[in-house]
Write a structure and sequence with these properties.
This protein is an alpha/beta fold. The protein has 10 helices and 5 strands. Helix content is 50%, strand content 9%. The protein is globular and about 50 Å long. The structure holds adenosine-5'-triphosphate and magnesium ion (MG). The site of adenosine-5'-triphosphate has 15 residues, from helix 3, helix 8 and helix 10.
Amino acid sequence: MCHNDPDWPARDAGDRPLRRSYARNGVGSVHQGIHSASSMVRHPGAGCRESLERQGNQGNQGKGRFITLEGGEGVGKSTNLALVVDHLRARGHEVVATREPGGTPRAEVMRRLLLDPAGEEPLDPDAELLLVFAARAQHLARVIRPALERGAWVVCDRFTDATYAYQGGGRGIAASRIAELEHFVQQGFTPDLTLLLDMPVGLAQQRLDGRLQGQGGERDRFERERVSFFEAVRQAYLARAEAAPGRVVVIDAGAGLAAVQAELLARLDERLEAWS
Ligand SMILES: Nc1ncnc2c1ncn2[C@@H]1O[C@H](COP(=O)(O)OP(=O)(O)OP(=O)(O)O)[C@@H](O)[C@H]1O
Ligand SMILES: [Mg+2]
């Protein structure tokens, strides 16, 4: 799985829709700070796999960290990602802000396949799951691992917990099947810290409605799901947090923005202190 796309824009790994989306939230270019597509060894058939198969997060010990923001629709992930990025940059870190599904031009094409509500052909849940992991493989190879390997911090809007929540909790795919793909694609790689924004589904839907009205936007394929789907997503997220309390910090996202951000920064600072 060595990706050497000849058309890869080494100095501009971004994607226009993604860039617009993040600029709106004040984060700036998602790939700001990426100066080369990858620092992985690129000997044909050898180097990339070796690099990918380095177990766990050994590559970023004492260097960059991988932080994810998770939660259901409209809980404030994008809003708070901007805060986390600014906070880390103020401490002098190089920070790559990115998102899933997506984060590279090819992975953003897969994102559109996943989110596009149009079309007479329903997307099979297994195809949905495989697309999510295909996009993740591309994102890991082209953006996340190279950034961490050169010492940058990566802050990502959704990652594999979202797969367990949406394709697992929401669609009903067995966690064991998701775990197989997680192992295949990630080889033990996990976030150093996950900030899970949790709040009642009804309130999050109201926030989403407010945002969609403000932008005149349409609901995507997931946003059109039933309330029971979102309830299942929320419970699956909370189960992930319970199973990994050292990695996942649950933030009460139902409070006002100032209170949410104060809590989030306090929890983040605790972790930064522990890492220093
Ligand atoms: N604590 C808060 N209190 C009130 N409104 C909030 C709060 N946090 C975010 N919002 C608003 O709620 C809306 C949804 O926030 P945001 O877009 O950050 O959520 P999201 O989790 O990224 O959504 P999505 O799942 O669609 O990407 C926005 O209009 C945002 O300004
Ligand atoms: Mg968002």
